Amino acid sequence: MKLFSAPVSPFVRKAVLAVHELGLNDKVEIVKGDYNDESSDLFKCSPIGKIPAMAAPDGINLCDSQLIVAYLDAQSDQAELLPASGSARWEALASEALADGLMDAGVDVMREVRRPEGTISSEIEQKFRDRAVAVLDRFEQEAASYGDEFHVGRISLLCALDYFSFRFADMEWQKGRPNLVAWHAKFTDRASAKATHPATWTL
Ligand SMILES: N[C@@H](CCC(=O)N[C@@H](CS)C(=O)NCC(=O)O)C(=O)O
Fold first, then answer.
1. Is 11 near ligand 1, meaning CB less than 6 Å away?
2. Where residue 100 falls among pLDDT bands split at 50, 70, 90?
């Protein structure tokens, strides 16, 4: 399996972290995905041109981090990142989608501030920053009831929080969110989290 990736992307980190959790390092080749070059192998795998994307056996091309993690989970007996059924499954998926939304808001802010000078909209930047704050506040409420499970939803949340620390230290997501800080502290030293941290992970 070939996983198209790039450093810092929180969506890529989610997939790579899952590879570690599931013990699939020998089965997944992590390669650079160049989303600026439409003739690159990334686009042959996924014409959407976003990372992560994964070329799996039997010509199956997977082009979204949720799908990639679900696929990887099905290839491993080492752990279960996506609960098989019932409310646990839907809670995990709902939490993953919410955390992905937090990542999206961060990526949207970065896209806006990287536009050419004179075309950057501070309103648009602020809109996505406000969205991120609203999602962080929702997670602060929910984190009070989180246990020790480390499923797709929690993996996505960890990746989103570390991405915000890395890109938007000024936002201080930790401020006024003690439940989230306590939850984050429980998982930040996990081997898979340390091996994939945005400050150090490279291809
Ligand atoms: N919903 C997608 C989002 C992936 C995404 O937004 N990736 C960004 C990098 S963080 C990307 O490829 N951007 C390049 C582009 O949009 O051209 C997922 O979960 O995989």
1. yes
2. very high
The residues pairing with 55 across neighbouring beta strands, listed in sequence order, are 2, 61
User: Ligand 1 center to residue 116 CA distance, Å?
Assistant: 20
Q: What is the CATH classification number for the domain harbouring 146?
A: 1.20.1050.10
> What is the whole-number distance in angstroms between the Cα of residue 52 and the centre of ligand 1?
7
The 3-state DSSP class for residue 179 equals helix
Burial class (CB in 10 A: 0-12, 13-18, 19+), 185: exposed
Q: Classify residue 35: in a domain, yes or no.
A: yes
**Cα torsion angle, 84, 45, 16, 132, sign:** negative
pLDDT score of 99? 98
- DSSP string across 18-67: HHHHTT-TTT-EEEE--TT-TTSHHHHH-TT--S-EEEEGGGEEE-SHHH
Residue 147 is part of which domain span?
A: 86-195
pLDDT in tens, 36-78: 999 999 999 999 999 999 999 999 999 999 999 999 999 999 9
Q: What is the pLDDT of residues 114-146, one digit of tens each?
A: 999 999 999 999 999 999 999 999 999 999 999
Q: Please report the sign of the dihedral spanned by the C-alpha atoms of residue 23, residue 24, residue 25, residue 31.
A: negative
At 46 the pLDDT is 97
Domains contained in the chain, number: 2
Atom of ligand 1 nearest to the CA of 66: 19
